[in-house]
Amino acid sequence: MTAMAAASIVAACATSPDKISGTYVSPIQYSNYDCDQIRMEMVRISNKVAEVSGQQKRQASNDAVAMGVGLVLFWPALFFLAGGNDRKEELANLKGQYDALTSAAIEKKCPVAQEIEAARQAHAEAESKKKRR
């Protein structure tokens, strides 16, 4: 019984935003967009991803603190985990939309596609340098 209660409480914890991958969204829905419309939608989605990621990160941090306090000091604090401002599904959908927009931009050979690729390469190089240190 205790193990089941602990498992359900841990399952109620919000997931860190960097561990949430995008759900599949078909790029076909953006096939009628021109490059400027794709860019504007990518900016809008990107801003929303940043907003929801911040909220998700705060919720995950709050859940981690409540879990620590509950396990160490005061077990009733674990019931605060059952609440739910977990926005995992919304964030996964937004990330999927962004991926679909990226695919549409690549297919239409929009300049934003080259910018995204350059940013990805720069990020990969930065990560590679961090690992070498």
UniProtKB/TrEMBL annotation:
The species this protein was found in: Phenylobacterium terrae
This protein's UniProt keywords: Membrane, Transmembrane, Transmembrane helix
Protein name from the UniProt record: Metal ABC transporter ATP-binding protein
Residues annotated as transmembrane: 64-82
Domain of life per record: Bacteria
